[in-house]
């Protein structure tokens, strides 16, 4: 609480009040009748409504009607532009076939406009599901289309350079991606090309360093990428150790397990956020923990391939050992949604699976991974992830006007296990209302849907791709 009762009320832009306020601050304070005041996109007061309200004179007031209010979710790793082809390949395709049969033909024909159509859908979907910040994983051929979609929707974003890879790796048996050939010179030439976006301290769309990774980067590229991230004070994001195939490729090439190798060549550090990490061997745990690196646990997408980090995965142990484990959605081509609340639920449940241990991870752990840990993982812990004075105002207002929110007993458990994103009502990012009553404020949803449906028809049509079905008799 800032200000005193005796002082004149401080003019603020927005007051969110009558909230079950889940701050996610270091003490994990919850105010059953809480309020948040926002001015200039920043949180200027937070606490019990009886303390906050008399101290401020808001230009606008939003009542949460007693429902939960919490920090916006942070999406640590997704392929924003691949939304254009969500669900295009069915459940019957194999891991070995998916890159040569689907991704490479797709990447060799998709246009910037089609990528934009997918990115706009992805941004709308994320906001609708309570995500207020996302990391694009570095596979948009034109990062500007992601930046534009994010800015138009009003969502915070970190974009990276396109397809920085130089040794093939998990696509080594595949035809070349024409716009992104494996080349150290090309990758080093593009590296850091999005960092200009950070010139403004409060830029909503920022740059970071993205490498495709996962057995596709040479040591030279890895070391240069880490150095660029260090110089710019941003995170290095890459895929790593998704499944046995790429881990075995790394093992054979490096002569040791990849996390040990990356640690020994100086690539691991607190500003690393590696996606997946589903296959970690015993000797890789210690270097991961000691480095302070973050992990994007992409449970829903990985579970599509049966590598989601349940039995045999180490995400829960790493989280409990203090590693900043956040959450990601990865690729929508798995027919996956960009829904970090759902990712939190599935991560918590996956951690219990095979262990018969209900308390392995809790709903509170899911919320921690989705908010404060996500902010730490993407290098924005000083700006977002909790509702505290001085942070940017990224928050979600839930609604209790649905069956799954009742009876009102434990609002955190209700969000994670019952209502999910259905209870997301209003989303505020950088102090701006971008979703209200479940509808986007800045973009027209119907326009977004029509555009991406047309783009999907056109790109899949050029590929001659038909979704394989186990039940083929569709009239
Ligand atoms: Zn990915």
Q: Please state the CA-atom Rg, rounded to the nearest Å.
A: 22 Å
Overall 3D geometry? globular
User: Major β-sheet, in short?
Assistant: 9 strands, mixed
What is the number of beta strands?
18
Could you say which structural class the secondary elements and strand pairing correspond to?
alpha/beta
- What name does CATH use for the topology of the largest domain? TIM Barrel
Structure description:
The structure is a single chain. This protein is of the alpha/beta class and 475 residues long. The chain has 2 domains: 10-71 and 387-440, Urease, subunit C, domain 1 (Roll), CATH 2.30.40.10; 73-377, TIM Barrel (Alpha-Beta Barrel), CATH 3.20.20.140. Helix content is 34%, strand content 21%. It contains 16 helices and 18 strands. The chain has helices at 49-52, 95-107, 112-128, 143-153, 184-190, 219-232, 244-254, 258-264, 282-291, 299-304, 315-320, 340-352, 363-370, 372-377, 411-419, 445-463; strands spanning 10-22, 30-39, 42-48, 56-63, 68-71, 73-78, 131-136, 156-159, 205-207, 209-213, 236-240, 272-276, 294-297, 325-327, 395-398, 424-429, 432-436, 439-440. The strands form 3 sheets. Strands 1, 2, 3, 4, 5, 15, 16, 17 and 18 form a 9-stranded mixed β-sheet that branches. A hairpin with a 2-residue loop joins strand 2 (30-39) and strand 3 (42-48). The model has no long low-confidence stretch (mean pLDDT 94). The site of zinc ion (ZN) has 7 residues, from loops.
């Amino acid at each position: 609480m800032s200000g005193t009762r005796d002082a004149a009320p401080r003019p603020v832009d927005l007051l969110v009040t009558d909230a079950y306020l889940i701050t996610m601050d270091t003490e994990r304070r919850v105010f059953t009748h809480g309020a948040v005041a926002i001015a200039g996109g920043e949180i200027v007061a937070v606490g019990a409504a009886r303390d906050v309200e008399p101290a401020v004179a808001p230009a606008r007031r939003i009542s949460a009607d007693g429902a939960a209010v919490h920090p916006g979710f942070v999406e640590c790793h997704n392929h924003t532009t691949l939304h254009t082809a969500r669900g295009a390949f069915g459940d019957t395709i194999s891991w070995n076939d998916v890159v040569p049969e689907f991704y490479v033909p797709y990447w060799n024909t998709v246009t910037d406009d089609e990528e934009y159509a997918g990115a706009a859908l992805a941004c709308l979907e994320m906001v609708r599901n309570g995500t207020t910040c996302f990391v694009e994983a570095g596979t948009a051929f034109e990062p500007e289309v992601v930046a534009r979609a994010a800015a138009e929707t009003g969502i915070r974003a970190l974009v990276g350079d396109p397809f920085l890879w130089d040794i093939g790796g998990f696509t080594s048996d595949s035809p070349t991606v024409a716009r992104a050939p494996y080349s150290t010179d090309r990758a080093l030439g593009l590296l850091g090309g999005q960092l200009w976006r950070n010139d403004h301290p409060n830029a909503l769309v920022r740059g970071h360093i993205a490498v495709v990774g996962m057995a596709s980067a040479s040591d030279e590229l890895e070391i240069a990428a880490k150095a660029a991230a260090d110089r710019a004070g941003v995170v290095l994001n890459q895929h790593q150790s998704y499944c046995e195939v790429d881990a075995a490729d790394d093992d054979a090439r490096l002569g040791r397990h990849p996390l040990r190798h990356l640690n020994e060549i100086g690539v691991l550090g607190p500003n690393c956020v590696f996606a997946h990490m589903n296959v970690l061997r015993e000797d890789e745990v210690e270097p991961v923990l000691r480095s302070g690196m973050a992990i994007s646990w992409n449970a829903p997408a990985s579970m599509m391939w049966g590598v989601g980090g349940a039995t045999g995965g180490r995400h829960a142990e790493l989280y409990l050992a203090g590693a900043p484990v956040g959450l990601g959605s990865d690729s929508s081509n798995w027919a996956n949604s960009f829904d970090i609340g759902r990712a939190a639920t599935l991560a918590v449940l996956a951690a219990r699976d095979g262990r018969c241990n209900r308390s392995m991870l809790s709903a509170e752990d899911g919320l921690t991974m989705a908010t404060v840990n996500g902010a730490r993982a993407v290098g924005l812990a000083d700006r977002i992830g909790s509702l505290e004075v001085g942070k940017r105002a990224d928050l979600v207002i839930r609604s209790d006007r649905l069956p799954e929110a009742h009876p009102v007993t434990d609002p955190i458990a209700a969000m994670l296990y019952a209502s999910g994103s259905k209870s997301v009502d209003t989303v505020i990012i950088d102090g701006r209302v971008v979703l209200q009553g479940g509808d986007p404020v800045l973009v027209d949803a119907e326009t977004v849907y029509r555009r991406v449906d047309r783009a999907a028809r056109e790109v899949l049509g050029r590929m001659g791709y038909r979704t394989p079905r186990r039940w083929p008799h569709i009239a």
